[in-house]
Specification:
Largest sheet: 12 strands, antiparallel, barrel
Distance between the termini: 43 Å
Number of domains: 1
CATH class: Mainly Beta
Pfam families: DUF481 (PF04338)
Shape: flat
Number of helices: 1
Number of strands: 12
Strand order of the largest sheet: 1-2-3-4-5-6-7-8-9-10-11-12
InterPro entries: DUF481
CATH superfamily: monomeric porin ompg
Order of helices and strands: HEEEEEEEEEEEE
Structural class: mainly beta
Radius of gyration: 21 Å
Organism: Ferrimonas aestuarii
CATH topology: Porin
Protein name: DUF481 domain-containing protein
Length: 241
């Protein structure tokens, strides 16, 4: 009897420790830099920081990223993006979310794009080395037009439907795959902006890893005849903490 009680106690304590470890703060920071000279002079700097922590049943996540590209002494790309999301977990699979973001892309025709949304999220599939989440809900988007690039365009204020999906797979002990797709669908006749990131992360040593990613950003009705599709391919060093 005492042996059985001892085993049960160990099992309960182990489960509690595992739950506490799962809820510990975590995050990662990545940095990429390249510079070429000679026949062409191009400088590229990319940085990103992501952090997650828990307060009771609230899971909070923050993300900041920046991209700067200078080509022949002229800036050809400059972008800053930030987002924050809080999830209230009903259980391991279901949650309500609140989301805000701000996108400053100096070559998009907008000074900034601010978005806020709330809705329901659900984990459709889960196992120790794989999960698939999907989210949906209503929101609001405000796009401030850059008058220097598009003097004849007005600012855009729209009710949106936000959808987001995230897939993660640890396909080996030292490598993982991650796919995220989101779309802020305008319900007011203005531009719908969709984003996608496909990434493979390979561990190097300790907390240091190498990340290869392809990012896509699609705008249905860009201002001032801008391109609808922006692509970004990157190779960065990533530090997990």
């Amino acid at each position: 009897m005492k042996g059985t009680l001892g085993l049960l106690t160990v099992a309960v304590l182990s489960a509690q420790v595992a739950a506490e470890e799962a809820n510990l703060p975590s995050g990662n920071a990545e940095l990429g830099f390249s510079n070429t000279s000679g026949n062409s002079e191009v400088t590229t700097v990319k940085g990103k920081v992501e952090y997650k922590h828990w307060i009771n049943k609230f899971e909070n996540r923050y993300l900041l990223e920046a991209l700067y590209v200078e080509d022949e002494d002229e800036v050809s790309s400059e972008r800053y993006y930030g987002e924050a999301q809080t999830n209230y977990r009903f259980n391991d699979k279901s949650y309500m979310f609140g989301f805000i973001s701000d996108d400053i892309d100096k070559f998009s025709g907008y000074k900034y794009v601010a978005t806020a949304a709330a809705g329901y999220g659900h984990r459709l599939y889960h196992e120790p080395k794989m999960y698939f989440d999907i989210e949906a809900g209503p929101g609001y988007s405000y796009k401030r037009v850059d008058r220097s690039q598009a003097p004849d365009n007005g600012n855009e204020s729209a009710i949106i439907a936000r959808v987001n999906a995230e897939y993660w797979w640890e396909f080996s002990e030292n490598a993982e795959f991650k796919q995220t797709i989101s779309s802020d669908i305008s319900l007011s006749g203005y531009a719908t902006i969709s984003r996608s990131e496909t990434a493979v992360i390979a561990n190097l040593i300790g907390s240091l890893a190498m990340k290869f990613a392809i990012k896509l950003k699609h705008t249905t009705s860009p201002v001032d005849d801008k391109e609808k599709l922006d692509t970004e391919t990157s190779m960065t060093l990533l530090y997990k903490f």
